[in-house]
């Protein structure tokens, strides 16, 4: 009886039980990351597995929308048949991230901050400014983006950066003999500011200076820099309709 009992026990544990529980029969989890969600159902069920989509899906710009982003268990794991695989999908649209404040930071720092916030460095434009390599403006598609605004993750941020040359001096151009319109154009082209216009009719000047500029400050040839103020004297009576508010009549 003892022998019969021992045989029965061995039969139950080593033959019957393994046969009914698929003992030592496993399935290798396939690689699903990168596959389209539309192909998953047939691919998984053919391998006697199940799947479930988790709610906390993420986003990757390197994958197409609704492709498998992550899987658990990982590819290569050994599991029993009918095991459930948990999948996350790549979002259809990029999530929004908060735009950081890059103004007055250096270009290198701005690039690091953008990367850390899931954004990309777009085009860089250098403009004349006293600030050297400092960010002056941050833009998307030509529009200023204030910090704390929400923008799509992966957006390219264009930067306007100072070239540090705004303090370079140059000789003040000579505006004498020019009409007011001519002088205004040249002053603007020289990145100077027309600060004061003095209308003073001077009959002692030659006729070729009538309605022309005959004096300026700073004088021609003196060192100035971008943004410097220019004051001019025009040999004419003041205009009748003066609404500019920046004209001195002497």
Secondary structure blueprint with pairings:
Elements: H1 2-21, E1 27-28, H2 40-45, E2 50-53, E3 68-72, E4 78-79, E5 84-89, E6 96-98, H3 107-116, E7 120-127, E8 132-140, E9 143-144, E10 150-152, E11 156-163, E12 169-171, H4 180-189, E13 193-199, E14 213-217, E15 223-225, E16 229-234, E17 247-249
Parallel strand pairs: 2-5, 7-11, 13-16, 13-17
Antiparallel strand pairs: 1-4, 3-5, 6-10, 8-9, 8-11, 12-15, 14-16
Strand content: 25-35%
Pattern of helices and strands: HEHEEEEEHEEEEEEHEEEEE
Number of E-state strands: 17
Mean pLDDT: 85
Low-confidence stretches: none
Number of helices: 4
Structural class: alpha/beta
| Strand line-up in the sheet with most strands | 7-11-8-9
Distance between the termini: 134 Å
Identify the CATH architecture of the largest domain.
Answer: 2-Layer Sandwich
Radius of gyration: 39 Å
CATH class of the largest domain: Alpha Beta
Q: Tell me the number of structural domains.
A: 3
What is CATH's topology name of the largest domain?
Trypsin Inhibitor V, Chain A
Summarize the main sheet: 4 strands, mixed
As a percent range, the share of helical residues equals 10-25%
- What's the overall geometry? rod-shaped
